[in-house]
Design goal:
Radius of gyration: 18 Å
Number of domains: 1
CATH class: Alpha Beta
Strand order of the largest sheet: 4-1-9-10-11-12-13-14
CATH architecture: 3-Layer(aba) Sandwich
Shape: globular
Strand content: 15-25%
Helix content: 25-40%
Oligomer: single chain
Number of strands: 14
Largest sheet: 8 strands, mixed
């Protein structure tokens, strides 16, 4: 059996309020609401499991009905939870307010318990971590936990990936030790806060992260596509033109597609194509997971979005 991808970070209940018209301030706005399982690391683990990749999720949930539900959703998808924490109290919740076009207006994060994922907890599960093909963490975890994972990655040779999530958690990593990090995946807003104020342009920011010892930086540029940078080369790929229904989870799906490509031994450009294809599919459904896709179907869709010249 192939080695699992081990995802470390948030598992949340996503409540998404999708406005049906113009979003009005200080008054009532009509909306529809959906409840789905979310959290960046949980989303990635769930999507990878549906695509046939063995996955372990290390997260923290409450001992409430939401926590029971989150665990059941993960188990049903094929995600293993051998090192997940169940704490006394409420599970974390992400409440998103979406504009009529599916874009995010604002969001709230409550009762998250990522601080419980400590180096001490990971040390107890060191043998499990040694079985990983990739280690992946979202930036919601504490910096000392991420630095422990990076030291473990450098010691074992298991590639470690950090997903910055959004600007506030990304800011925590501005002064973190990132030497030897395999991959970090910021968007245009997150990249500057990972760097010093002296790095005022994108290329300077990329160079600064490379000098800090990051092996690969994958910069997401929304509708413009993305670019993968390392010391040897830069690869760019445009994003497909699609009708967006719901933006939730598109970035998580993109990283899931990239990791799937690496799991299958593909070259960087083909990993990017897989990533963009999966992200495009997620943007066209409600929720953060493309439940309609198998690995075979996803691989077949790549040529629809990126036909051979």
């Amino acid at each position: 059996m192939s080695k699992p991808v081990i995802c470390i970070g948030a598992a949340l209940v996503d409540e998404l309020f999708h406005t049906t018209g113009e979003l009005l301030l200080a008054t009532t706005t009509d909306a529809t609401v959906t409840k789905t399982a979310g959290g960046v690391s949980r989303n990635i683990a769930h999507q990878l499991a549906l695509l046939g990749v063995p996955v372990q999720l290390i997260t923290a949930v409450g001992n409430d009905s939401d926590g029971d539900w989150l665990k059941q959703v993960c188990i049903s998808a094929g995600v293993k939870l051998d090192a997940t924490i169940t704490r006394n109290g409420l599970s974390g919740k992400y409440t998103g307010i979406l504009n009529a076009d599916g874009s995010l207006y604002t969001a709230f994060l409550t009762n998250a318990a990522n601080h419980l994922i400590t180096p001490e907890h990971l040390l107890k599960h060191k043998e499990l971590l040694k079985t990983a093909s990739f280690l992946l963490a979202d930036a919601n975890i504490n910096v000392d936990t991420a630095e422990w994972l990076l030291a473990f990655s450098n010691e074992t040779g298991i590639p470690f990936v950090i997903e910055p999530v959004s600007v506030p958690p990304a800011k925590k990593y501005k002064n973190a030790n990132l030497k030897g990090l395999y991959l970090i995946t910021p968007n245009e807003d997150e990249l500057p806060v990972l760097c010093t104020d002296q790095a005022s342009m994108t290329q300077m920011q990329i160079q600064q992260l490379l000098e800090k010892g990051v092996q690969n930086i994958w910069l997401h540029n929304g509708k413009m596509g993305s670019a993968l940078y390392n010391k040897e080369k830069a690869i760019t790929l445009h994003a497909p033109a699609i009708e967006v229904i719901d933006c939730t989870g598109a970035g998580d799906g993109s990283l899931s597609g990239f990791i799937l490509g690496k799991h299958l031994g593909k070259e960087d450009i083909d990993c990017l194509k897989l990533a963009h294809t999966l992200s495009a599919e997620i943007l066209q459904v409600n929720g953060a997971i493309a439940t309609h896709l198998t690995q075979e179907k996803l691989l077949g869709l790549v040529s629809d979005y990126y036909p051979a010249n």
